[in-house]
Specification:
The protein is an all-alpha fold and 215 residues long. It has eleven helices and no strands. The structure holds protoporphyrin IX containing FE (HEM). It comes from Streptomyces avermitilis.
């Protein structure tokens, strides 16, 4: 039988390609956008991670989602430091969620409150992605906008307490392989993962509309 970590990765492969090659992500990685677009994107991430992490404590005891809740993953404090750097000390005053971001955060919260397996799908989609492709985005951001290496502006991408991301990801995949869920529930989690990718793509689409290339 296919390991669940393999199943969820292969089943979401197409959605991953779509997110990765979205206009906004391509423009960002191509160094074609200004730091304003990057700041706006970072603001959107703040809403998503707040939704993911405000529920973390309560879900820590849950048999399905609980083992995945690990303090070294928490991103909100890093995002807040990045935003203070990008927007200034009063970064909260101008902070707004795009409608697509609100929809995404609402779905994360809904899963957190009603369906731990669904929450896990969102957890996987973001944190394992941040530990993987996130590092490519960090490198590009440092080069394009001159942030200090692993410093203010890109702290979101730096997991200070994870010395070996490859080993951490292996451990995470082992947890996925051991989840207490039957086949039907696993299928539902995979479907929610695809939805999580689609919600990300929706945010990218909205950001792409807000920051079209003038050239
Ligand atoms: C341009 C942007 C992106 C790049 C360059 C990128 C690149 C990568 C790479 C190279 C891996 C493989 C790492 C490995 O095998 O250890 C990966 C994995 C992953 N990415 Fe992305 N990615 C991007 C965007 C995203 C987005 C937007 C999401 C979802 C929000 C995402 C979610 C994931 C997940 C969940 C994995 C782990 C797959 C697994 O091993 O189970 N990625 N990404």
């Amino acid at each position: 039988m296919t390991a669940f970590s393999t199943l969820i990765r292969t089943a979401s492969h197409e959605q991953h390609v779509e997110a990765e090659t979205s206009t906004f992500m391509s423009d960002l990685l191509g160094g074609r956008l200004g730091v304003e677009a990057y700041a706006r994107y970072t603001e959107q991430l703040w809403f998503v991670y707040r939704a993911l992490e405000e529920s973390a404590e309560r879900l820590a005891e849950d048999p399905v989602a609980g083992p995945f809740i690990q303090p070294e993953l928490m991103r909100v404090p890093s995002l807040e430091r990045d935003l203070a750097h990008l927007r200034g000390a009063d970064w909260r005053s101008g902070l707004t969620a795009l409608p697509a971001t609100r929809e995404y955060a609402r779905r994360v919260t809904e899963c957190a409150l009603t369906w731990p397996g669904g929450y896990l799908a969102h957890h996987y989609t973001r944190y394992l992605g941040d530990l993987s492709g996130g590092q490519i985005i960090r490198d590009k951001a440092e080069k394009t906008w001159g942030f200090a290496r692993k410093g203010d502006g890109v702290r979101f991408y730096v997991f200070e307490q994870i010395a070996n991301p490859a080993a951490f990801k292996r451990g995470y995949r082992e947890l996925l392989d051991g989840i207490r869920a039957d086949d039907l529930e696993k299928q539902r989690i995979v479907a929610e993962c695809k939805r999580a990718f689609a919600l990300n793509t929706g945010v990218f689409r909205a950001l792409g509309e807000e920051f079209p290339l003038s050239a």
